[in-house]
Amino acid sequence: MSIATVNPATGETLRTFEAMDGEEIERRLQLAEATFRTYRTTSFAERAQRMRRAAGLLDDDQQEIARTITCEMGKPIAQARAEAAKCAKAMRWYAEHAEELLADEEPAAADVKDSGAVRALVRYRPLGPVLAVMPWNFPLWQVVRFAAPALMAGNVGLLKHASNVPQTALYLEDLFHRAGFAEGCFQTLLIGSDAVDEILRDERVRAATLTGSEPAGRAVASTAGEMVKKTVLELGGSDPFVVMPSADLDRAARVAVTARVQNNGQSCIAAKRFIVHTDVYDAFTERFVAGMRALRMGDPMEEDTDVGPLSSERARADLEELVDDARRSGAQVLCGGERPEGPGWYYPPTVIAGVTREMRIHREEAFGPVATLYRARDLDEAVLLADDTPFGLSSNVWTRDEEEIDRFVRDLEAGGVYVNGMTASHPAFPFGGVKRSGYGRELSGHGIREFCNITTVWHGA
């Protein structure tokens, strides 16, 4: 795959970039290793000052970088601005909280005495250069939610971004450099996927984090396992959105539309499978389908656009195949489901009912504005349907019954359960999944500690 900016709204190639050769990659690996030796000794106050400066610069650049994001991957411009603002917020959050999150921990006095020590503590120390393999769908946020905690912990970063967002990738390197971070603290590697394995095998790279597809995660995890290196993986999702009889149906349906089509439906944590109790199935479906039909699909640079194009021609073809397979197998397409005429890789908001386990769309992640509807007879069937997926990233539950809430929180196989609201990441809360959605956590204290050496310090008499 070439490294290029291709506008998904038109299919026009705007800029192309040459992949870095082996000599340049080696120079950058050397720089990362050398920079880490000194950067790791900087104080939290020094790191926080630079991180806050990066947040301020990002605020200043918000409109410009939002246009770049939209041009490269197609999300509506208002959502691109919101993504930039969210990144600045996360930078400030880690600047404020990193020191307390990584403060030395003292075991209980009785345990220290029992160990024969006069003093003991647990200290968090940085690992070194961390390779980040990141996707195109949130080209700023996916990187910042790794970079902010990693840099605040004293690590340095090497970014291999998706090949269709090179300008955003280069912007990030420049942003951190302008904020006062040394040149080797955060570097963008303009390379293809075929170069990742060799870099990950390099002894100077101490760990890796990947957000992306399941095959990409398997490849990185395999190499990292062979090299005995720590990894954090955030892979696909097919999140359930469960609606029970006590739910506020009007609000649930409105949120359901947003939860499905955010980022043009190209989000791992977007709600994808809508599981509705039979008592309210018809009422919810009527509201939900009407909301999906009312969305405005069009030029993502226009402020009133709700849904822009998919990221690539291949992405649209993959989504079409899932919808067509379901239709051929007997599913009912309640709205959408047909490719529009004209340029760009657009696909309309689509709702499919009558999905069965044999259909591909039941087993595979639909990465685009396509929702599947399921009817559940009772709470037990709702839980079974929600968990009937190889993924386990997050989940959404709509009910005002406390016993039902307790049951969903206990039994849903997911990294998050959002009650009467849609899944959204926040720097204070851990984010990640189970099953084939990956392992490890980003954000919060859990995220910043993922790439730390948790060191026991024991003092004898």
From TrEMBL:
Q: Does the record bear NADP in its keywords? A: yes
**Domain Aldehyde dehydrogenase, residue spans:** 3-457
InterPro entries named among the record's database cross-references: Ald_DH/histidinol_DH, Ald_DH_C, Ald_DH_CS_CYS, Ald_DH_N, Aldehyde_DH_dom, ALDH_GabD1-like, GABD/Sad-like
- Keyword list, A-Z: NADP, Oxidoreductase
Which family does the record assign? Belongs to the aldehyde dehydrogenase family.
Q: What is this protein called?
A: NADP-dependent succinic semialdehyde dehydrogenase
Give the organism the record lists.
Streptomyces thermoviolaceus subsp. thermoviolaceus
